[in-house]
Amino acid sequence: MFKLRAILALLLLTLVTLTPTLSLAADDPAAPSQDEATPKVNAAVELPKMQKILDKIKGQVSGDTNDNQLSQLNEMALELSGNADTLGQALIPQRQQLDTQLAVLGPAPAADSPTKETPEVTRKRSQLENQKSKLDDQIKQAEGLKNGGLLLSSQIANLRRDQLKSQLALNSGSILGPRFWAPLFSTQDLDGEKISDFIAELKDTAALSWEPGWRFGTVGWILAAMLVMTLGRRYSEEFLAWVSIHKLPEGRLRRSFLAAAIALTTLAAVVITFNFTALAFTRRDEVSSDVQDFVDRLVQLSVFCGLIAGLGRAFLSTRRPSWRLPHISNAVAQALKPFPPITAALVFIFQTAEAFNNSVGTSLNTTIVANGLTALLIGSTALSISVRTQRVRRRLAQEGETLEERSTLAGLIQIALTLTALAILIALLIGYVMLARFLAYEVVWCGILFGSFFFLSHLINDGCESLFSTQNSTGKRLQNTLNIDERHLQQAATLLAAVGKTLLIMIVALALFNGSFASSTPIELLQKAIEFWGGKGLESLNIVPAHLVSALVCMVVGIYILRSVRRWLDIEFLPKTTMDIGMRTSLVTLMSNIGYVLIILLTLSIMGLQWNKLAWIVSALSVGIGFGLQEIVKNFISGLILLTERPVKVGDLITISGIEGDIRRINVRATEIQMSDKSTVIVPNSQLISQNVRNATMGNAQGVVTILLTFPLDIDPVRVRELLLEVYNENERILELPEPSVSFKDLSPQGIVLSVTGNVASQRQISGAKSDLLFDILTRLRKEGITLSTPQTMVIERRQPVVTTKPDDELLP
């Protein structure tokens, strides 16, 4: 497992696929060699050998093996399966050739056939059929060996998982109790004798390297190792810094390239130094196999140490603070400077102790002591990093200095580091040493993976941006060669960077799952707890508690990826296309809706939910769903129609049911319309489909400003027409094309009705432009002495009848 982790880490840093080949211990007589597993041309000889090798691997798996041996046996089983598959594929062309030869000879004639074939043809056909039958058997045997190797690999993986769960669940005593420290003072076991014998082998190996005739080579390899670690690392880093400054274009690529160069030079220096040192002492054939395996283990360990030290130096960048990629203040970086080499040294020391115990074969109690000390120091170091960072930031805040802006992710990482360190220390206190050791190395492993991803993602992003930038020679050359717009180059850079980051995420996920293959232990504990509290009821729905946790993780990761992709489309990629904002918003919304549906379906699938178990629930609720949710379903379908057909889109100015405003968002159920007074009206999507909607910006984005004016009959219409056109032409909002126009609309008793029309750039400018034009028109008309026609009113007056009266003397008789 440790070697595979190192290879995956190198894959992250160099982006080069490495195919490791592991072999079994040389001192094990039952161990199959690599030469035996290599298929040869003669399948009749090789297939029985492969079967024997597979049987030997099965025998070793069934014995008492540790995790490292199981890992090697697993790789041997996979290699055997691959060789069997290769051999089977190589036999298929031979079988096809025999079929062709048999087709040439044709079928055997019937007994009553008048035509007879010669004995030579009959013999040849029989010979070919026998060969074909043997090839068929060999192909079937190769297929069986292939499937057997894969099945054995799966069984080994399950066995390793069970072993790790047993180790994690083992309570070996608190680190403060005498039971933990007993192996250091007890003399009842044979650990002391085993350690002394192995130390004697190491001394003999050193003596072999110092014999006459070998001393000069030993001193030369040691000096070469020292030069590589000191001068070689320093000058190679300085050379790459010079390349970054003088050869790379200006921009962020310089910083990311230099950070990657620091990490790579440190890694290369450490690995080469360890290899040279190993060659100095173990290059002779007389070195014992145990010592050779121990030294090989240290060389493999150097990859981890180099990565920890290199990534830490690149992350802090204390020598060049202005080139530091992460947003860390110089005070915090200086405070954290000792921790990367300390962590690398601790990992090397205690992994060396573990490798020493494995080589010697010490007792379980002695191994637990070494693992406990490993977890204690790594957990304490992780907690010290978090505490010291927080202390420095608090001190800077008290001194009034401006702190760097920390992202939410950085805060979550610090919290996770603190909680994991506390979990390690608590596990040591209550006696779960193997669990603490597992968490300690997972912290280191996750730090290596995420650190590598951080630097490589910046390098890929900056490299793609610089490669396709028209400010650089490569971008200009691409633009001239392909004859494309700068916008297309930016799109290509964004897409290429996204593909690179996606591949990195896949590699990181693969490395995490491979490095923490026993992560199902908490799930098993959760499953037992649910069963203890009556979780058996979930069996009716075929829901396994372990699947629940996996489904929850899938849902959280899926939502995070979906939001990241949505943010990338909305901010980075789509703005570089020719799509308008409405189309971009509709596309992002549609993609989000489809993504959420897929995430829900995938989560339910991982959960193991069987829909036939819910048939009675669906039947009982079908009536209620039909009546209660029909409006929601109708609005949802209408929203999908709006996003696909796009009769209205985000940014359009529409009028519906007396409501006029701009569409700001089209949601799943309703559409948000912003009015002119900045208020928002929520309109169900179904109304936009079923009712008459006026879309002012769909066919033509321009607006038309029309003003009707009534003048008296005695005016000069030509002069008034010229005056109105002058007012329209002088207004800065009125477009020159199409030109403003004045039309004679009507001739009525009230006067002459003229219509003035002009275009503006947007529908939203109509009201403002109309107001300005009316002010200017009334001012110009009053200045020219031209009046508007006043409306004629009809007044109806009712008068009382006049009554005449006579004098009183005329009334007398």
TrEMBL record:
Subcellular location as annotated: Cell membrane
Main localization category: membrane
Region (Disordered): 107-136
Coiled-coil boundaries: none
Location of the DUF3772 domain: 140-200
Transmembrane segments: 213-232, 257-278, 298-316, 336-356, 368-387, 408-432, 438-460, 492-513, 543-565, 586-608
Similarity section: Belongs to the MscS (TC 1.A.23) family.
The protein, known as: Mechanosensitive ion channel family protein
Organism: Candidatus Pantoea multigeneris
